[in-house]
Amino acid sequence: MVEPVLQISDLVKSFGALRATDGVTLDLHPGEIHALIGPNGAGKSTLIHQICGTVRQDSGTIRFAGQDIGGLGVAERAQRGLGRTFQVSSLAPEFSALRNVMLAVQAKQGSSFRFFKPAMLDRSLTEPAMTVLDRVGLAERARIPASELSHGERRQLEIAIALALGSRAFLLDEPMAGMGPEGSKTLTRFLDRLRQEAPILLVEHDMDAVFALADRISVLVYGRIIATGTVEDIRRDPAVRSAYLGDHD
Ligand SMILES: Nc1ncnc2c1ncn2[C@@H]1O[C@H](COP(=O)(O)OP(=O)(O)OP(=O)(O)O)[C@@H](O)[C@H]1O
């Protein structure tokens, strides 16, 4: 069997008397979109924060790419390829899409000695940056400033930056938030393709997007996962229907 990219076991996090994460076990396989859904306050963001390292778990383990990362800081986890986007925008709005990705390529290459050529003429930066823009479908928008891209295109650009930085899995926290119906459809198509680049743990309230995209869904209620399964399993599950889905089918 293929090793999961991300494996979370028995994770617990309390805030005072509140168990925001109450023994969560879940994993993410290569090529998959695993959606995490649940009512407001269920503990989805708290879980994502523990995976990316901004909140430290009380107990339990987080393994990524075969290693225990539960004791590492945010930057170290990102360096190992755990990509998180959409909460804090990483874009330089006045720079073109290309330049934004070039900065990431340069950061990844770790080289600051570029005295000889202006960066935009340096093919060791422009070529890999264009390749990544092409992978996310933004090659034709390369010269447009980030501030002039649509909301959805900016999200594609953020993904491009994460890919250029070497992300091997994505934690996406409500990517559909603030998108209109057309934008949501476009972003859904994009995420559908993105799973081949890197698997995605997707926190999302937009059930149309979740049902269209998820290979598996886990349902979190009061810090506990009450069900994990395919879209059909989850739609049929009586506990999920009463706790969360209601009329969503
Ligand atoms: N830093 C904190 N201190 C105290 N309580 C917190 C803290 N962060 C989260 N909580 C509480 O933990 C619980 C889970 O919150 P969390 O934001 O993780 O839920 P969520 O599922 O992401 O909700 P939403 O869908 O509304 O974003 C809530 O009761 C919240 O009030």
What's the arrangement of secondary structure elements?
Elements (H helix, E strand, L loop, with lengths): L5 E10 L2 E11 L4 E5 L6 H9 L6 E6 L2 E2 L5 H6 L2 E4 L11 H13 L13 H13 L15 H14 L4 E5 L7 H14 L5 E4 L3 H7 L2 E6 L2 E6 L1 H6 L1 H8 L4
Parallel strand pairs: 3-8, 3-9, 6-7, 7-8
Antiparallel strand pairs: 1-2, 1-4, 4-5, 9-10
Second-tier CATH architecture of the largest domain: 3-Layer(aba) Sandwich
SS class: alpha/beta
Number of DSSP E strands = 10
> Structurally, how many domains make up the residues?
2
Radius of gyration: 19 Å
Task: Walk across the major sheet and give the strand order.
Answer: 6-7-8-3-9-10
Report the span from N to C terminus: 33 Å
**CATH superfamily of the largest domain, called what?**
P-loop containing nucleotide triphosphate hydrolases
In this structure, how is the largest beta sheet organized? 6 strands, mixed
Helix content: 25-40%
How would you describe this protein?
With 249 residues, this protein is of the alpha/beta class. It folds into two domains: 162 residues, Rossmann fold, CATH 3.40.50.300; 82 residues, Rossmann fold (3-Layer(aba) Sandwich). 36% of the residues lie in helices and 24% in strands. The protein has nine helices and ten strands. The strands form two sheets. The chain has a six-stranded mixed β-sheet, sandwiched between helices. A four-stranded antiparallel β-sheet has the order 2-1-4-5, covered by helices on one side. α3 runs parallel beside α5 and α4 crosses α5. The longest helix is centred in the middle third of the chain and has 14 residues. The two termini are 33 Å apart. The model has no long low-confidence stretch (mean pLDDT 89). The structure holds adenosine-5'-triphosphate (ATP). One of its GO terms (cellular component) is plasma membrane. It holds the Pfam family BCA_ABC_TP_C. This is ABC transporter ATP-binding protein. It comes from Oryzicola mucosus. Keywords: ATP-binding, Nucleotide-binding, Transport.
